Amino acid sequence: MPELPDLLDDALLRDVLATGLARGADFAEVYAESRRGRLLRLEDGRVEQLSSGRDLGAGVRVISGDRIGYAYTNVLSRDALQEAARVAAGAVQGTAEKTVADLTSLSRRADHPVRVPPLEVERPELVGLAERVDASARGESGDIAQVIVTYQGSEREILVANSEGRLADDHQTRTRLSAQVVAARNGRTETGFYGPGTSGGHELFDQYTPESIGRTAAARAATMLDAEPAPTGEMPVVLWRGDAGVLFHEACGHGMEGDHIARDTSIYASRAGEQVASPLLNGVDDATVQNGWGSFAFDDEGTPAQRTVMFADGVLTDFLLDRRSAHGLGASSSGNGRRQSYQHLPVPRMTNSHILPGEGTPDEAIAGLDRGILCKGLGGGQVNPASGDFVFGMTEAYLVEGGEIRHAIRGANLVGNGIDALRDIDMICSDFAVRWGICGKGGQQVPVSFGTPTLRISRMTIGGTA
Predict the structure, then answer these.
(1) pLDDT at residue 464 in the model
(2) pTM, whole model, 2 decimals?
């Protein structure tokens, strides 16, 4: 299949952009995308789905002041692209007299090498990977009742050109293998999940073998069968490496995204330069992490990938901006304009959000608890960006008394406020781990990762069942 620069030469792109500006708009942009993917789903040892697909299309965005027009097509012909540009332009007629600047290709700041492309792997090998996950999960415990294994491999090419002369193209490869395991005993069921991913290929399985994926998910499910009802009240909490990133992503990261900041609907708006968190905290969003699950060379507006420092020694330093929110704030894009596909407008999104390691150890963090909670897994929850208030369910947690882990607990929730939680961090450890997810926002889903060391929060409210 031809690459996008072969299908869309500079002359065609300039003509489409000129049509977008023809009715007085300030800005026009063409975003083209070619995507190929493969999905395998193994349930209880049987292949329930093994499919592949291809999608190709482009969207034209036209901006005049605060108005945006957008139209897309899955046909990359001159006529189809020009019609999309006319439709988008007609929605935002203005009085500007802009012309299309000469297109200049941007150089890459980040590279994500792929050693074993996922779409070049034969299907029997993919089935073998999934079967290895299934077998290792079932071998972990006699209580395993169900194993669902999902494999995803994709290759995505994007091309972005705009009327200001920006031209960028990027190839993005992603691979992920996950296990969802159900354990059951005496009428009780518990679920465990584990799913590593990379913006790379099957070299992922050199680090995360299928056996380790199955065992990890199964152990989480089986362990919680012995859990006792969770206590209730305010107490210190140790959040385990990697999984603590869910809290950082949901309760803090979304409030740092530029659309919430520009609309003043975030608790973090207008607080840049303030000491809002513990001086131990240093947090970044970094799309340049080599082969990170949320990494890329250019975002979906053609801005080079960047490493944005959100917190430096607890001081709020910068926000996560796309082109539009940056313009409203009088700033520059931080390379966080992302979209699910050519059918969607870009919005500011996180990439790889990390709390950087400190100097403590997990043993020290736990030993310092007279009575508290060790949380090794966070599940679904709710967050209000305007207030920072949140509620999260704990999928794997333990009661700690006298500095020692006593037993697993079930039915526990973390209740709190994002800024309060950041401020009350009193230890950040030197270990570090990453978790992987698909983040939903505004009806769009994009891959993100969250990485953290083990950290301790001196007080949080536990909603329990005891």
Answers:
(1) 78
(2) 0.95
